[in-house]
């Protein structure tokens, strides 16, 4: 039995005891029956009223519990709908109070979840708004009144993270571009004029709006400053070249040039102004020295004529070069011509350099060829002969390769330009062929001249006998006799008689020239062969040995030669 039922039975027992006690009191007092009935009715009505009141209160409590259950259930369903959660399943077979408690607890959990989500949404919205203000972008598309789902919050967080990364990238780009802009402005002595330039240079970096338009405008400003700087440098460089030319032509002293060195290096605004002033000053001096200037320009033109390999006809085509009427107009024509020649040289510099390289190699080749025919080169010391031969061999190989390379370049240039490439008034390849042909003809002429000279010498030797020609230095594989010509000079009569009966050899060519006098008898040759068994000595060495033997024995040279 429940305790409440026990308490109810005790309450009934107490009521019965109380009524019996009242009855006893009434009997003792002697209260009549009608009054007893009245008093008993009062007690009954009092108890009944008290119980009715208690029952009413409990019924009211029941209604409140039912109402609370209904309210909590409605709120729970609403929260589940807002939070996009499934509805809470209620337990079966529990009391109303337990049911109300469970529902109310679940509602409190849902309310807390909703509050957390809304707080997160609020924080993310504030961050998004700050990023939108800085990046000038559109806000994230989410309602601030509706409860977001966890997936929506996660997507929102990723969007915020991406925006922060974009902000960091744009900020780094802004700072980099800003540094360059400030540097260019300093170099150009430029003061910020527009509101945008002031915002970039003067305002705090964190307050600058990092919108795409602003970043684009920032890059555009940087490009404009770069162009201005490039134009400024180009203008300064042009002024410097002009000043250098005018200095050279006016022969300005080095001390005066040195005082202007600062402006010949940097290209700031003040440097540009100083350069412009210097150009103007020198131009005025140029007009006062127009003849000297014209002559200097003509010298420069002549240099470029040589560099561009112009023919005489092409040079004479510039008639102002030969004019003696020195005016400002004439100087202007010369300056225009030098600019044209410089441009022409720069446009075809690779070809001209190749042609110049070929001419230098060709000149060196001709020098080496000339040295190769010089007999005195054998007396050189220090390995020069070997070096020259090696260099000549390398040129023999490199010249055809260079000509082949130039031919390909010239053909490509002619195809591109639609005109022929001339060197000294003729096609380069034709010019090369002519040079080789001239070289070949010159070699043939030298060969014929040597042959003619040799033939003439042979005829003279046959008519008058062979003269002894001793080279400057000569080595033999045996005993050498110094001052041979002096000793032979002492025996002139013997040599005279010997030359009519002996065979002489030419020192240089090794040519044997026989005298018209009859040769010695064969018995002499046989006797000589009997005395010297083995391989006979070289003719030249044999002649020298004869001469030495004659001197040692005190026998005249003619007798020594006659024995053989």
Strand content: under 5%
Total beta-strand segments: 4
Calculate the mean pLDDT score and round it. 76
Note the overall shape. Answer: rod-shaped
Question: Structural class given helices, strands, pairing?
Answer: mainly alpha
Radius of gyration: 64 Å
CA distance, first residue to last residue:
175 Å
The strands making up the biggest β-sheet line up spatially as 1-2
Low-confidence stretches: 472-564
Number of helices: 19
Quick gist of this model?
This protein has 564 residues and is mostly helical.
Architecture overview:
A hairpin with a 2-residue loop joins strand 1 and strand 2. The chain is about 75% helix and about 0% strand. Mean pLDDT is about 75; it is low at about 470-564. Helix 2 (about 35-80) packs parallel to helix 3 (about 95-135), helix 3 runs parallel beside helix 4 and helix 6 (about 210-250) runs parallel beside helix 8 (about 270-290). It is mostly helical and about 575 residues long.
């Amino acid at each position: 039995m429940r305790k409440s039922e026990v308490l109810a039975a005790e309450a009934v027992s107490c009521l019965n005891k109380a009524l019996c006690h009242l009855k006893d009191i009434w009997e003792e007092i002697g209260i009549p029956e009608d009054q007893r009935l009245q008093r008993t009715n009062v007690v009954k009505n009092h108890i009944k009223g008290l119980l009715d009141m208690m029952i009413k209160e409990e019924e009211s409590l029941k209604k409140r519990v039912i109402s609370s259950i209904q309210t909590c259930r409605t709120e729970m369903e609403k929260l589940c709908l807002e939070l996009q959660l499934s509805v809470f399943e209620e337990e079966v077979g529990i009391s109303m109070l337990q049911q109300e408690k469970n529902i109310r607890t679940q509602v409190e959990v849902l309310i807390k979840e909703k509050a957390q989500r809304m707080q997160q949404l609020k924080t993310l919205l504030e961050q998004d708004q700050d990023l939108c203000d800085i990046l000038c972008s559109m806000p994230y598309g989410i309602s601030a009144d509706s409860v977001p789902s966890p997936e929506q919050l996660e997507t929102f967080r990723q969007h915020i993270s991406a925006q922060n990364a974009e902000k960091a990238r744009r900020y780094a780009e802004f700072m980099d571009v800003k540094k360059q802009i400030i540097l260019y402005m300093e170099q150009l002595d430029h003061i910020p004029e527009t509101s945008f330039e002031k915002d970039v240079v003067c305002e705090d970096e964190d307050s600058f709006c990092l919108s795409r338009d602003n970043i684009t405008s920032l890059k555009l400003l940087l490009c404009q400053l770069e162009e201005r700087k490039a134009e400024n440098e180009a203008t300064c460089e042009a002024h410097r070249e002009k000043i250098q030319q005018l200095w050279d032509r006016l022969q300005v002293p080095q001390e005066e040039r040195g005082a202007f060195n600062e402006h010949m290096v940097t290209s700031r605004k003040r440097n540009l102004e100083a350069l412009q002033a210097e150009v103007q000053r020198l131009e005025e001096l140029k007009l006062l020295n127009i003849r000297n200037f014209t002559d200097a320009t003509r010298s420069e033109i002549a240099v470029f004529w040589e560099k561009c390999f112009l023919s005489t006809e092409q040079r004479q085509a510039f008639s102002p070069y030969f004019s003696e009427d020195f005016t400002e107009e004439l100087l202007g024509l010369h300056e225009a011509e030098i600019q044209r020649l410089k441009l022409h040289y720069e446009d075809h510099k690779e070809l001209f350099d190749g042609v110049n390289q070929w001419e230098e190699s060709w000149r060196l080749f001709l020098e080496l060829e000339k040295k190769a025919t010089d007999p005195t080169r054998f007396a050189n010391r220090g390995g020069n002969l070997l070096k020259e031969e090696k260099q000549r061999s390398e040129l023999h190989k490199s010249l055809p390769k260079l000509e082949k390379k130039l031919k390909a370049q010239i053909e490509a240039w002619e195809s591109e330009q639609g005109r022929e490439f001339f060197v000294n008034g003729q096609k380069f390849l034709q010019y090369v062929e002519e040079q080789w042909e001239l070289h070949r003809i010159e070699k043939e002429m030298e060969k014929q001249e040597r042959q003619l000279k040799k033939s003439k010498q042979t005829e003279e030797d046959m008519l008058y006998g062979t003269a002894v020609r001793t080279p400057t230095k000569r080595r033999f594989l045996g005993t050498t006799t110094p001052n041979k010509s002096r000793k032979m000079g002492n025996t002139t009569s013997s040599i005279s008689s010997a030359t009519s009966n002996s065979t002489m050899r030419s020192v240089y060519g090794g040519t044997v020239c026989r005298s018209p006098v009859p040769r010695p008898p064969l018995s002499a040759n046989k006797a000589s062969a009997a005395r010297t068994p083995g391989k006979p000595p070289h003719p030249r060495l044999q002649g020298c040995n004869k001469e030495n033997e004659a001197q040692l024995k005190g026998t005249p040279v003619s007798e020594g030669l006659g024995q053989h």
